[in-house]
Amino acid sequence: MSFRWYGPEDQITLEQIKHVSKIEGIVTTVYNIPVGQVWTQDKIHEVVTQVMDKGLELKVMENVPVHDHIKLGDVSKRFYIENYKQTIRNLSQSGIKVICFNFMPLFDWSPVYFHGFDQDESIHSFSYDEHILKVKMLIDGKWDKCGWKIKYSKHEITRLMKAYKQMKEGELLDNLMYFIEEIVPVAEQESVKLAFNPDDHLYSILGLPRVVPDMKTLEFILNQVDNPYLGLSLSTKSYGATLQKDIFSIIELAKHRIYYVQACNKLKAQSGIHTPPSQHLKENFINTLKILKKLKDVGFDGPITPEYRSIVFEESKNARYGLYDRALGATYLNGILDSLFERSV
Fold first, then answer.
1. Is residue 236 a contact partner of residue 247, using CB atoms and an 8 Å limit?
2. How much is the mean pLDDT over the chain?
3. Residues 198 and 218 sit within 8 Å (Cβ to Cβ)
4. Are 254 and 278 contacting, i.e. CB atoms less than 8 angstroms apart?
5. Which domain, by its residues, includes 70?
């Protein structure tokens, strides 16, 4: 079991994380490097050392952001692609063998949560509110509740949104395929697995295009680049929380090309509503037991992180994740895995 850590500025420390039962790995990224610049070995080594010094292992580097000029197919894309290739090489030299990336316009991932109650009012959690995002980005000009802090000016945000909305149908996918076909050979040379996280959003945010809106598109990508060094980052909260995507079919499709799993028993979305996770299993919640069993059946043995975002034990609000909710989630997931694999406890 692994745990996401947001670097030295994270209010959740590595010291706290290592005391969570059966947590052996860390999923993190290198912060404070502008998107598109090469990640130097010194910066990468600094993060790896911080993790190792606590007796933990850096399992996945998440996320290596893709510059918007690559996603848009801008004339400067070659420069940023070459930088990305060098970052892959540098990560490999530092012992990182799984890299997670996505191709979502403008955002890396943007939960856009506010503090509220779960549907049964039993627990504080987060919910989706697009109005908040519009206010923050289009009026304030910033939004830091995402994977890496957006530092665009209001003018840049407006310009980029306009450029994305003017893209022709299929153009974003074409740009993704160009990017993948460029970086996969480098990943293969360096023995680095690329874990593609297709879409964190269950539906379009602010009218921006989505690169993987359905199962057919995902199947096309995996078949077009039939290489074991390109696989998936499987998010149950994204794949399992919408009725348009069958997570079990996706697991069967990808099989041995799933390199990282983000597990959560989130409520399925019925009509474009980003609903919060819950500690309670109900008929219309994602069946985590069945998902983990399916992963076992196809031979998955990679890192799993608990994706639980509920405010429990009066823990302070966090734009990203808390400690207690994920510690409870990790215990819940480990209980299932102990049973499935008949592990001693």
1. yes
2. 81
3. yes
4. no
5. 2-106+169-340
